[in-house]
Design brief:
Chain lengths: 283, 292
């Protein structure tokens, strides 16, 4: 499998507080990688490493390598000489809370193109339509594209945010608990959407929902005290495997069986053996 | 909280609202009662034909028309100077200022906000005297120096309003544009400022009202009782607030006092129209910037 993202000894600090500790992983392309773990252990921070959004946070600093394959070459996202704006256009991000910009639905979709200098292209309407269709939102909003995006429902807003991230056709999409603030029906729609995006995109998703992990993730990683561990059946090799998160994926509960019926559950074979956190994990 | 205490507090809140509302109704009502009978062509243009006055073919010597034009010109120049500088300084404070430099600027802006208008007027007068001596009598109290002094008077409002509005943008919105590949300037211009438009427009409205009512600054820097319509930035001018102040202090009879009430009513109407225009502009700007 072709590797899309690889990190080597990534450590991260907010001022003096270390959040990530020597993370080395590899993520294959065209997969959904789920990162689970207790709150405050660095999951979201790890996502910001991949698109260098951490730079926007005062007091943040990083060491190590975080490389993403873009157009055949691995580029180090931590390299200060790397044009960060171009990187973020190739590595999209969707946040936990739906964050439509305070403007119309159309302007939300056009916004990334405008700031990339592509806001006056002839096929703009086609791009808007395609992005909304890919996000399974077109039929619901096609007659009110000039309405305030904040008037959409929570699930619609989140799909709009995904459409906005997709309009630049990123090759990696980072999702920080994308279904945390939406109802179950919207959650199902978003999961379907994420599965459909896998063909063109590599997805890295932070989530607390272990049922969701079973339904859509190809690979599961657990963040524990700033270190990432792959999920597997061995309870001994990962210090967090005894936690709720460690048990959650490897011990399917009867309640999840009915929910997984409409989506194929994550195969145990997808989850490889654990290596010490300092070493590269190949999946 | 005890139910009785809660009811008392709520009643006090309602009472305060009604007291304020009552005061406004009484003030505006009295002004209208005294001012409306005086509103006629003579109050505005005196004996000069209105068309000639408006086309500046003839001077108006005993009407309020030059004072209305002077007030509008003063407001326009002061706001044109104050808004870009005030908003830019607010953006600096919220988005770029860091550490001790930001603290120093913050202190300076607070001091500027606390300076009484008469002191700003005296500073303006000092500048005029320096320029007068330096350029051998070519500078005297005039429209542009009054407008500059007023701009300094209202700038702290604009700086603080812009700064607070920008700082109150939720982090989720603040990080959205950078995550999509925007530069910091694009984020400020395309997302943050349009998001803060209602608050910033509110600040501009307050600043306009402050400029319109201030007398202390302009009486020291260029306003006079009889100057006609100013034909350049360096001319002296008439202004409604100064006229009202002058009449209330030195009126010689009931007719003159009545014209003062008329001037006050006209000033109130001008402010009302400007506020309405600001609200309309805000709506149009919001629509065109964010929803089209």
């Amino acid at each position: 499998m072709t590797i899309k993202i690889r990190t080597h000894n990534i450590s991260f600090w907010y001022n003096d507080h270390q959040v990530l500790n020597n993370i080395s992983i590899e993520i294959p392309e065209h997969t959904i990688t789920a990162i689970t773990g207790p709150s405050g252990n660095g999951k979201s921070t790890f996502l910001t490493v991949l698109n260098r959004l951490w730079e926007e946070i005062p007091g943040a600093r990083i060491s190590g390598l975080a490389e993403i394959e873009l157009q055949g070459n691995f580029i180090d996202t931590c390299d200060p000489s790397l044009p960060v704006r171009q990187l973020r256009r190739r590595v999209g991000m969707v946040f936990q809370q739906p964050n439509p910009l305070p403007m119309s639905i159309r302007k939300n979709i056009v916004f990334p193109l405008t700031i990339a200098g592509k806001g006056k292209q002839k096929d703009l309407e086609k791009k808007i339509r395609n992005a909304l269709k890919r996000a399974l939102l077109w039929d619901e909003v096609k007659d009110r594209l000039n309405d305030d995006a904040r008037k959409l429902s929570g699930g619609q807003q989140q799909r709009l945010c995904i459409a906005r991230a997709l309009v630049l056709e990123p090759s990696v999409l980072l999702l920080d608990e994308p279904t945390a603030s939406v109802d179950p029906a919207a959650c199902e729609g978003i999961e379907q959407l994420l599965l459909s995006l896998k063909a063109n995109c590599t997805l890295v998703m932070v989530t607390h929902y272990l049922d969701q992990v079973r339904r859509i993730a190809d690979t599961v990683l657990t963040m524990h005290e700033g270190q990432l561990f792959p999920q597997n059946d061995s309870a001994e090799t990962s210090p967090c495997s005894q936690t709720e998160y460690g048990r959650g994926v490897t011990e399917p509960s009867s309640s999840t069986q009915s929910q997984t019926s409409c989506f194929p559950p994550c195969q145990a074979g997808n989850q490889k053996s654990v290596l010490p956190p300092q070493e590269t994990v190949s999946m | 909280m005890k139910p009785g205490l809660e009811k008392t507090l709520i009643s006090l809140c309602w009472l305060s609202g009604f007291v304020l509302l009552g005061a406004v109704i009484i003030l505006v009502g009295y002004l209208a009662y005294r001012g409306i009978p005086t509103l006629n062509r003579h109050l505005l243009f005196g004996d000069t034909p209105p068309l000639d006055a408006m086309l500046m073919k003839q001077q108006v010597f005993d009407g309020l028309f030059p004072a209305i034009v002077g007030t509008l010109a003063l407001l326009a120049i002061a706001i044109i100077i104050a808004v870009p500088i005030g908003v830019a300084a607010g953006i600096y404070m919220a988005e770029y200022g860091r550490g001790p430099v930001k603290k120093l600027f913050s202190l300076l802006f607070d001091i500027l906000a606390a300076i009484p208008s008469i002191v700003i007027g005296l500073c303006g007068l000092t500048v005029i005297l320096i320029l007068h001596n330096r350029f051998e009598g070519r500078f005297a109290p005039c429209l542009i120096l009054s407008a500059l002094s007023l701009a300094f008077l209202v700038m702290p409002y604009l700086i603080r309003t812009t700064q607070m509005a920008l700082e109150s943008v939720p982090p989720a919105i603040r990080l959205t544009a950078p995550a999509l590949g925007s530069s910091k300037l694009q984020n400020i211009l395309l997302v943050l400022l349009p998001s803060c438009l209602p608050e910033i427009t509110g600040g501009i409205i307050l600043a306009t009202g402050r400029c319109a009512e201030d007398t202390a600054v302009i009486m020291l820097t260029g306003a006079v009782t009889s100057a006609g319509i100013p034909r350049s930035f360096l001319d002296q001018y008439e202004a409604l607030p100064f006229y009202i102040y002058y009449i209330s202090a030195q009126y010689s009879g009931p007719a003159e006092l009545a014209s003062g009430f008329g001037a006050a009513l006209i000033l109130l109407v001008i402010c009302g129209l400007l506020f309405t225009l600001s609200f309309w502009l805000r709506r149009r700007l919001t629509t065109s910037l964010l929803y089209r």
